[in-house]
Amino acid sequence: PTIYRKDYTPPAYWVRTVEMGFDLEPSATRVATRMTLERNRAGRDRTLTLYGEELELVQIRLNGKALGKNAYALKDGVLRIADAPERVTLEIETLLRPDRNTSLMGLYVSNGNFFTQCEAEGFRKITYFPDRPDVMATYKVMLRADKKKYPVLLSNGNLIEQGDLGDGRHYALWEDPFKKPSYLFALVAGQLVCQEEKIKLKSGREALLQVWVEEGNLDKTQHAMDSLINSIRWDEERFGLELDLDRFMIVAVGDFNMGAMENKGLNIFNTKFVLANPRIATDVDYGNIEAVVGHEYFHNWTGNRVTCRDWFQLSLKEGLTVFRDQEFSADMIGTDSGRAVKRIDDVRVLRQAQFPEDAGPMAHPVRPDSFVEISNFYTVTIYEKGAEVVRMYQTLLGRDGFRKGMDLYFERHDGQAVECDDFRAAMADANGRDLTQFERWYSQAGTPRVVASVAHDAAARTYAITLQQSCPSTPGQKTKQPFHIPVAVGLLGQDGKDLPLKLRGSDLQGTTVVLELTEAQQTFVFDGVADLPVPSLLRNFSAPVVLEYDYRDDELAFLMAHDSDPFNRWEAGQRLALRRLLALTAAVRAGGGMAVDPALGESLRLTLTDDALDPAFREIALTLPSETVIAEQMDVIDPQAIHQARRFLRHALAQALRADLVDAYRNNQTPGAYSPDAVSAGKRALKNLALSYIGELDDAAAHALAQTQCDGADNMTDRFAALAALANGSAPGRAAALARFYQDFEDEPLVIDKWFSLQASARTTDVAAVRKLMQHPAFSLKNPNRARSLIFSFCNGNPSQFHAADGSGYDFWAEQVIALDALNPQVAARLARSLDRWRKYAPALRDRMRSALERVAAAPALSKDTKEVVGKSLAAE
Ligand code: ARG
Ligand code: ZN
Predict the structure, then answer these.
(1) Which stretches make up the Peptidase M1 alanyl aminopeptidase Ig-like fold domain (predicted)?
(2) What is the DSSP letter of 539?
(3) Which of 112, 367, 375, 678 is least surrounded by CB atoms within 10 angstroms?
């Protein structure tokens, strides 16, 4: 059944207090819950509605009296008590089987320990409850368990009592002073150890910080702890927001559906986003850990203190919190060019994953109007496009204006469950601005297109930029209204320097101005422009749109060499490369020969050898658009042709730039002890990019370079990059290097994930090879990280093999979606998205994809998660 945003009604009852007692046992956990409720005076409804799933209801008492089976109605996971009194005390006892919970929602067991995941609707797998985010209560939680097996007992808030119970059992009593929705509830129990640190907060209060992991992992917690402390400091500085608890805990778990979870005071993390030391984690891992630790910490204010009224408002907390973690990561790098590299990385994710989503069958607005299963809406649109929407406020209002809006938001809504509109109103009101039209960013799906054209009048010394916007149809939204789009622009004079801008009818000054496009078409006139400039449009990617402008090749080369906006400097190179890649792909399809003109190579050589540029920037500038990004530009996707074209271009560039690549390799070594700082990481990135290009040549010298690095590396970044170079070519040491890597890291699950993932995405790995890897003793479908490392890496990260002409990739996909669905619907539904773009392929592939989708759709007992995804894929356009 589809749930609609327009059907929102406030709850009939508020929950004021919740007390819970858990008797933890893997095969039979008893949960006793006592809650006090009060009828919502604002409503007319007297029906008390509770949700429960996959649990056994032992008993239920209302105001002290046991309720018989006819005192309530229980159907499809909804328990209704009609005509309940105004004040209610409910006592509910439920019985759970955490050891059989493979969905990893609610209470489950991972490697012998207990964990919970309650967002979005997991709490209802623990007890019957008004499990919706606008129902907020205070919680007191008693945990009881065997002391030897579960020496550590954690829940939200403060530990107020602990002790022995005799008979080998013990207890811990926790109290969370802040009222919260049930999705922020958490408990952890088991054999864990922690690194801890006390810090002084800005106000002078002291807080205890802990990072909990399994024994043997204490040598991998320092970076997470450092990241947490940096996050706390950053939120104090940038937004004036302080940690509101005396104790803040992070716990790592190896079985987890997503990245991490912001449970109040007890964040639970996928091990992937906690554990790091130089031996097992790459520079990218270090960066991701910092970002996710920040993200979950920042939720304490944006998500927990102010939460969502309903799940349609998910981006209220997620878009805002992603924006905050992006800004945090950028500030941690500190330099302008470092910030630009971070910005480019974020935009790459948006284009690689969100643009295709916005153009496919699952397209939805940042604030969706309907869904079947909310878990399917933890998407790149809600998160990453949502963050872009928040970023546009800052672009329009300035940093100070944005901060004013944030302050007003907390002043108005602290302790409340609110809507995206409330955030927009705070931004508007704090700045005296009308942001009515800006609402369309929340209500309209699809990636807007902005087409720019220019007219220069040398005699009048004017330069006019005309911007035209449109937005393609998306499911359920045929036509779109114009968006309010901030378009940051600069003009480069013939010397490559920015012109001072005089925008007609405006007092905006400087070398970059933000044009506000609000109509379908608008013209902006700049005065005092004597000579024809080159426009630098959508600087720093000021809006999540596709910007089209008919640049000549030489103009792009000019921007690559001179634009003061590092984002657009990168962008110019990408435009040029994309142009070549599309032409090469067309040539492959036409059966003609491929050839590259030397101009692209020369422009890239200038970038590669420009020592004034940060190595990190040079690395991203030399990275060609991905196969997925190329595919999105084509009317009919031909994965094999794209793959051949991109390989050809990489090979040609490697030949043309070989000497410079070898220099870059030599000049960007990082001797001494490993450090994940941005400068060292940037050097390693450029060095390893050089290694990867040289690897394209697949000759003895290339093999030797990779082999030597693989054997000598003292950190995972270099070891893994070298292994990848070997794995993607025909080096004689390939098999031995893979085998040795496995041996060396057999006891490090996160590294074994990398080992699977590398092979799954290697260009020579076909479906048969993936099936063989699935037989490896270390493979398990039950562990999401492992399933993702092999199956997702193949289906999403190896397009030319996955889209094999015989359809064998799709058969494999269908089998795995069905097998996963029986274990873990959330993970299965993610994999189900791999065929989102099936309609864009040539008929032979398209028909095979459709059959695979139909096969999944027809599978018996399919979860609503997977059913929604394949159903929408198959639905008429
Ligand atoms: N709120 C979490 C975060 O963004 C993710 C929630 C996970 N949701 C889920 N259905 N597993 O950090
Ligand atoms: Zn989040």
Answers:
(1) 446-550
(2) G
(3) 112
Q: What is the mean pLDDT of residues 408-429?
A: 99
pLDDT digits (tens, 9 = 90+) for 617-642: 999 999 999 999 999 999 999 999 99
Structure confidence at residue 596 (pLDDT):
85
pLDDT of res. 34: 99
Cα-to-centroid distance, 322 and ligand 2 (Å)? 7
- Confidence (pTM): 0.99
d(CA 99, CA 417): 34
**pLDDT at 44 (0 to 100):** 85
Residues 158-188 pLDDT 10s: 999 999 999 999 999 999 999 999 999 999 9
Predicted confidence (pLDDT) at residue 450 exceeds the cutoff of 90: yes
Average pLDDT estimate for 385-396? 99
Over residues 478-491, mean pLDDT: 98
Atom of ligand 1 nearest to the CA of 374: 10
- CA-derived radius of gyration, the chain: 28
Tell me which residues are annotated as active site: 296
Query: Above 90 in pLDDT, residue 597?
Result: no
Ligand nearest to the CA of residue 299, numbered in listed order: 2
Secondary structure (DSSP) of 588-621: HHTT------HHHHHHHHHHHT-TTS-HHHHHHH
Residue 718 CA to ligand 1 centre (angstroms): 32
**Strand residues in 219-273 grouped as ranges (E):** 247-253, 260-261, 266-270
Residue with tokens 């944030």: 406
Residue 258 C-alpha to ligand 1 middle, in angstroms? Answer: 6
* Phi, psi dihedrals of residue 165, rounded to the nearest 5°: -110, 0
- Catalogue the E-assigned strands of 687-746: none
Neighbours of ion ligand 2 (CB under 5 A): 318, 321
> What are the angstrom distances between the C-alpha of 526 and each of 262, 456, 463, 476, 538?
48, 10, 5, 40, 16
Q: What pLDDT does residue 652 have?
A: 97
Q: Which residues line ligand 1 (CB under 6 A)?
A: 117, 119-120, 257-262, 295-296, 318, 375, 378
- For ligand 1, what atom is nearest to the CA of residue 318? 4
Task: Name the residue of 253, 261, 304 whose CB sits within 8 Å of the most ligand 1 atoms, as the mutation to test its pocket.
Answer: 261
Q: How far apart are CA 713 and CA 709, in angstroms?
A: 6
Q: Per residue in 189-244, pLDDT tens?
A: 999 999 999 999 999 999 999 999 999 999 999 999 999 999 999 999 999 999 99
* Residue carrying the six token digits 């080159």: 534
Distances (CA, A) of 504 to 53, 220, 243, 494, 818: 62, 57, 47, 22, 60
Closest CA to 726 of 755, 690, 752, 702: 702
State in Å: Cα 706 to ligand 2 middle: 38
Query: CA of 398: how far to CAs of 34, 183, 438, 480, 514, in Å?
Result: 48, 34, 16, 28, 11
pLDDT at 876 over 80: no
- Token readout for 793 is 């890496």
Looking at all shown ligands, the one closest to residue 256's CA atom is 1
Paired tokens of 659? 């000497």
Instruction: From 102, 117, 119, 121, give the residue whose CB has the most ligand 1 atoms within 8 Å, as the site to mutate.
Output: 119
3-class secondary structure, 723: helix
Ligand 2 geometric centre to CA of 379 (Å): 11
Q: Tens of pLDDT along 809-830?
A: 999 999 999 999 999 999 999 9
